[in-house]
Amino acid sequence: MLSEKTIEIVKSTVPLLAEAGPQVTEYFYDRMFSYNPELKNIFNMSHQQSGHQQFALFNALAAYAANIDNLAVLKDALARINHKHTSYHILPEHYPIVGGHLIATLKELLPEQFTPEVEYAWREAYALLADVCITEEMALYNKTKQAQGGWFGTRLFTISHKQIESEHICSFTLTPCDGKAVVSHLPGQYLGIKVKPENSDNTQIRQYSISQQSNGENYRISVKQEGLVSYHLHSLREGEVIEVYPPAGDFVLREIDSPVVLISAGVGQTPMMAMLETLLSKQHNQPIHYLHACDSEAQFAFKEYLIKQQQAHPAFNCVTWFKDGKGGDFAGLMDVNHITDNLPISEGDFYLCGPIAFMAMIKEQLLSLGVASECIHYEVFGPHQTL
Length: 387
Known about the structure:
This protein is α/β, with parallel strands linked by helices. The chain is built from 12 helices and 12 strands. The strands form 2 sheets. It has a 6-stranded antiparallel sheet with strand order 4-3-6-1-2-5.
C-alpha cells in the first residue's frame, strides 16, 4: 500500500504531465530504444511512428496518477493492457527497464519540478503498478499454459489454408506443427503473430482477431492488407510456418441470455465472425443482429457465409451500409436510426469493432436511442483509447 504522502505527491504531478503533454512519452520511447534497442523486437514500431503509442501511454500515465488512490476505477483498462501485454510476451524483467527509463525521462524533462521527494513517490507508485500488472499477467500466462492445448511463449503453426474473403481481406487457417490440440479461445479474442518481414530490421508482433469459433484443432485469422506485417502475411503461401502466441483479449462475448447486436466496419468484422459462429452453433434463443459498414460490396468479407446463415436462421438478421451506395441495404455511413424499430434497445447487448471514429459515432447513436452504456462493448485495434 502507498502512504498518504506518496499518493498526495503523485496526484499533485497530474498538472505537470498535462503541461508537458505526449512529448514526455515520445522522449521516453526515444530514450528507451536508444539504451535498449532489443525492445524494438517487442514494441510495435509502426505505432511509434504514428504517435498512437505515445498518446496512449501518456493517457495511461495521467489516468494512473489521477486515480492512484482508487485503482478500481482503472480495473477494465488494466485488464485490457494485461491481455495485450501477454500477446507481446511481456515478462517481469521488462518492468524495471521501462520504469527506469520513465523515471529518468521525468527527471530529465522536468528537473525543477521532479525533486528527489517526487522521484521517490513515483518510484513507489510505479513499483505498485508493476506489481499489479505482473501478478495479473503471470496469472493469465499460467492459466493458458495449464489449459488443455495451452502453451507459453510462441508455438509454430503452419498456414494450412488461405481463403480470399474480399478485395483486401484474406483468411489464414493456422494449424499447430506438432499436430496437438490448441487451447480454446473466447469469441472476440486475438492471437499475437510474430514474424520477421524481409524489409524489416526487427521482429514484428501484431495482434489479429480470431475469426472463427473455438474448435480445439486450429485457429483462423482474417487479415486486411494495409501495413508492413499484413503485406508480409498476404505474401506467405500455404505450408509456410509462423510463430504464434496464445489467445488473449478481454473483448469477448458475454454469456447472457439476451438479444445480441454485432456492429462492425471494415476489418472489424473479424471478431464478429467468431461471436456469430459461436452464437449460432449454441442455438442462441434470442434475436441476433449483425450490422456492417464498408466502402463497397467488393470490400464486404464473408458475404456468402452471412447470406447462408441468414437463410438458415430466422432469428438472425444482417444489415449492411456501403459507402459508395452500390448494393447493400443502405448507402453512405452507418446510421442505426434507419433500423431502430428492429433493434433491442432496452434489452440488447451491443458489440462494436472498427475504426475509432466509427465506433465513437455508433456509440453516440446508441446512447441517444437509450441503450445503456454498460451494454455497449468495444474493441480498439492498436493502442487502447476510450470512445
